[in-house]
Amino acid sequence: MPAPKYLRHGGNGAVVETQTAVTGGAPDADKIPALDGNGRLTMSMMPTGIGADTAVIEASEALAAGDFINIHNATGAKVRKADATTAGKEAHGFVLAAVTSGANATVYFEGTNDQVTGQTPGPVFLATTAGLAAAAAPTGAGNVVQAVGVAVSATAINFERGTPITLA
Questions:
Q1: 8 Å CB contact between 165 and 127
Q2: CA 101 to chain centre
Q3: Starting at the edge strand that comes first in sequence, how are the strands of the sheet with 5-9 ordered?
């Protein structure tokens, strides 16, 4: 489907037909920006350095939307569910979309994880259930205590990566 066309005023006052743009760059000069399905500008329209702090990394296991993830080396960078029961599996970020093992995951290193449920507003910690966060820090020997942010509602955590500490 071709991009919709709109009218705008040219520099000399004449009415000029133009199209919407969904990506940035010189080929889209004089086009009106199009909004995405959420009513926002797409990230492709933003200059370098503006936008979410993300990386696309292959998942070494299936991930659910909202999971807190750990980046590890398995013949290259891979992501898996962060887990407070295992030292070395601390949370480095989160995913907003589910991915299957072997697929690429968009990892967010900051911002709001709005794919969680059952949160109580206040500080949250990496949970002993892989990928999740809890209102209370784990207490078992060998568990990792790591603050992962602040729940601002039952369905949103503002991610703030804390320093992990392994309990003796």
A1: no
A2: 18
A3: 5-9, 15-21, 32-33
Rounded CA-CA distance 101/97 in Å is 13
Give me the DSSP letters along 4-23: PEEEEE-TTS-EEEEEEESS
Give the contacts of 125 (CB within 8 A, at least 6 positions apart). Answer: 84, 133, 134, 135, 136, 137, 138, 145, 146, 147, 148
Evaluate if residue 141 carries a pLDDT over 60: yes
Is the pLDDT at 48 greater than 90? The verdict is: no
- 52 pLDDT above the threshold of 50: yes
Global pTM?
A: 0.78
Displacement of CA 141 from its chain's centroid (Å): 31
Q: How many CA atoms lie within 13 A of 156 on its CB side?
A: 7
